[in-house]
Design brief:
Elements: E1 8-11, H1 17-30, H2 42-51, E2 58-62, E3 68-76, E4 86-93, H3 102-116, E5 121-127, H4 131-139, E6 143-154, E7 157-167
Parallel strand pairs: 4-5
Antiparallel strand pairs: 1-2, 2-3, 3-4, 5-7, 6-7
Helix pairs in contact: 1-2
């Protein structure tokens, strides 16, 4: 796909389930970007889409042909009511689409949606040392607020998690 393709965002739809699974499951199986250990089944992905169809939206980045190059979402930060105005973001870009500005497009739209939905703060967690993702979030106004040491274990390794925050 040529790098000159234009991308736009839209709300995720059930018809995107297979494209999202394809992107996400590669990360589950081959990276520490997600701490999930088991690939998502189609029914699980559809349920995830349904969960993100209201106040905590998910979006996709599509090209002129409607091909999904990435997706992103806002999720509740914690279940207790006092956290209701804080959200956590996730951004995933298909490896074949990386380096085309899709991550920044998705994250920028999440910030806009978070603000429009009345949220006060966005938190983002990532395995420490994921420099491209950290730089993406810094470019959208996120700042490092801490490192959680050895809170995850994947591929036989203990993993630290960097926590970044942006006020909306």
């Amino acid at each position: 796909m040529p790098a000159s393709h234009a991308y736009r965002t839209r709300l995720v739809e059930r018809r995107d389930a297979d494209a999202l699974r394809a992107i996400y499951n590669v990360e589950v199986l081959e990276s520490t970007v997600t701490f999930d250990l088991v690939p998502r089944m189609r029914a699980e992905q559809v349920a995830w889409i349904d969960e993100h169809s209201g106040g905590h939206p998910a979006i996709v980045a599509v090209d002129d042909d409607g091909e999904v190059g990435g997706f992103a979402s806002l999720s509740p930060y914690r279940p207790r009511p006092a956290y209701a105005t804080t959200v956590e973001d996730s951004v995933y870009v298909d490896a074949d689409y990386q380096g085309r500005g899709i991550g920044k497009l998705l994250l920028g739209e999440l910030v806009r949606l978070g603000t429009a939905h009345g949220f006060h703060a966005m938190i983002w967690r990532v395995v420490d040392k994921n420099e491209p993702s950290i730089k993406l979030h810094e470019s959208c106004g996120f700042r490092l607020i801490g490192i959680e040491r050895e809170v995850g274990r994947k591929f036989g390794r203990w993993l630290d998690v960097a926590v970044m925050q942006r006020m909306l």
